[in-house]
Amino acid sequence: MVPAGDPTEQTVKKLGEILDAGDTIVDGGNTNWHDDVRRASELDAIGVHYIDVGTSGGVWGLEVGYCMMVGGHEESVRRLAPILDTLAPPDGWRHFGDAGAGHFVKMVHNGVEYGMMQAYAEGFDLMHESRFPIDLKEVAGLWNRGSVVRSWLCELAERAFDEEGNDLEGLRGHVSDSGEGRWTIIDAIDHDVPVPVITAALYARFYSRGNGDYTHRVLAALRNQFGGHAVERTAGGG
User: Fold this and answer.
1) Rounded to an integer, what distance in angstroms lies between the CA atom of residue 177 and that of residue 203?
2) How far apart, in whole angstroms, are the C-alpha atoms of residue 216 and residue 199?
3) Pairwise CA distance, residues 68 & 29, whole Å
4) N or C: which terminal CB in the chain sees fewer CB atoms within 10 Å?
5) Nearest 5°: CA angle at 156, between 151 and 159?
6) 179-232 per-position pLDDT tens digit
7) d(Cα 155, Cα 145) in Å, to the nearest integer?
8) Are 54 and 68 in contact (CB under 8 A)?
């Protein structure tokens, strides 16, 4: 379980050089499934098994177990089953197909997560800006008691508002991404599957980092040019 990309690539390569035929490499990180397919093929040639295990559960997984999405040869997965049974919560793992299938399902899982998080964030923002003195911690807690939008993410929102306060003043609105949302969108394009919610959620993260600042300056300039609308200028601007 190391970062996707070169760290995983080098780790798998080094392990492949020292393992014996019949040994198994398990990648439990967030790897691009295309890399899984290639690595499994290369390792098959020397008799080493490769299994990809997309893992979800956050830091609480240590206590309650991880949901695991598994890809790899049936025989290899059967050998690994006792380990998966131990790490996962009851009935908490599934085998979805050959190498790459597990990380493919995990990739889509994370894309869905992007959309869900964005929807919660926008809804809480609207309530935060309303005329009513709404306690957002209480809203999150209430929604998890019978509401159709109850979820673990909503439980985490309740916890966040409890720890950080209603205004979240101690946090910057800067949201990173670790790649899975991008991979989901690329695969969706390859399959002609529209994913507007996931795409918008990823773009919102880009905006959170100030990456759209020049876009907004062009918009302001155009509005000023065609309609003479007032613009706000930076210090030293013309």
Assistant:
1) 10
2) 19
3) 11
4) C
5) 135
6) 999 999 999 999 999 999 999 999 999 999 999 999 999 999 999 999 888 889
7) 10
8) yes
Q: How far apart are CA 180 and CA 202, in angstroms?
A: 10
CA-nearest of 108, 88, 92 to 100 is 108
Q: Is the dihedral of CA 93, 97, 103, 109 positive or negative?
A: negative
Strand 93-95 relative to strand 67-71, pairing: parallel
Q: Annotated catalytic sites, by residue?
A: 106, 113
**The two three-digit tokens of residue 16, written as one number:** 């492949």
Q: Which long-range contacts (CB under 8 A, 24 or more apart) does 186-194 make?
A: 187/104, 187/107
CB 30 within 8 A of CB 21: no
Q: Write the CB contacts of 81 (distance below 8 Å, at least 6 apart in sequence).
A: none
Q: Tokens representing 141?
A: 């807690």
